[in-house]
Write a structure and sequence with these properties.
Blueprint: E1 2-9, H1 12-24, E2 32-34, E3 41-50, H2 52-66, E4 72-82, E5 90-97, H3 101-113, E6 128-134, H4 140-154, E7 161-164, E8 166-173, E9 180-188
Antiparallel strand pairs: 1-3, 1-8, 2-6, 4-5, 4-7, 5-6, 8-9
Helix pairs in contact: 2-3
């Protein structure tokens, strides 16, 4: 069994800039867990624990879909959090698609993977890059102040764009030091 997910990796320079947001804001009193720089990505689909055989089947379906999608550009938008109501548990940077290709990719993958009967999370696709997780119940006003400050810092990165030329099936290994993501299959988008 392998814990796997499908994602778009980010350029190294962009990862560095996103990760540096954590160095610009004070948050000593809050229990936050920043995503490691090398782990920043845009998740398309989380599979959970699946067999190696199923990874192969997913890979084949993804290859077929990717032949139909031209490379595309994405742009960073503003910071936000989940859940939308109540205490934030995940703080992220939004992603804006400059064409319909990201949503087309997501829709085609959903249809192509349906016969594999993978578990569905049922939520609407909301493209984002997770920056950090709130680890425990924490002072709501301190968290609100932190988020406002982060949002202001993140505005400096708004509009930064990057090209997507491939999607990746990653293996996720959990450890006390944090997750380690290893690319299992790299699937290029349509050749021009």
């Amino acid at each position: 069994m392998v814990r796997a997910f499908l994602a778009i990796d980010l350029p190294q320079e962009l990862k560095k800039e996103l990760f540096s947001l954590g160095k610009t804001i004070s948050y000593e009193s809050l229990k936050l867990k920043w995503v490691e720089e090398e782990n920043l990505h845009l998740t398309i689909r989380f599979f959970g624990n699946i067999s190696e055989n199923l990874v192969e089947k997913i890979y084949k379906k993804c290859k077929e879909v990717c032949k139909e999608i031209d490379p595309f550009e994405l742009r960073l938008s503003s910071a936000g959090y989940f859940p939308f109501k109540g205490t934030p548990r995940v703080i992220w940077i939004g992603i804006e698609a400059l064409s319909n290709n990201l949503f087309k990719l997501n829709d085609l993958l959903k249809k192509a993977l349906k016969p594999l009967k993978l578990k569905e999370n049922g939520e609407k696709f909301h493209p984002h890059i997770t920056l950090l997780r709130v680890k425990e119940k924490t002072d709501p006003s301190a968290l609100k102040s932190f988020f406002e400050e982060l949002k202001k810092e993140a505005e400096k990165l708004e509009g930064k764009s990057f090209f997507v030329r491939e999607i990746i099936i990653f293996k996720s290994e959990l450890s006390p030091a944090g997750p380690k993501y290893t690319p299992l299959k790299i699937i290029p988008l349509k050749e021009k």
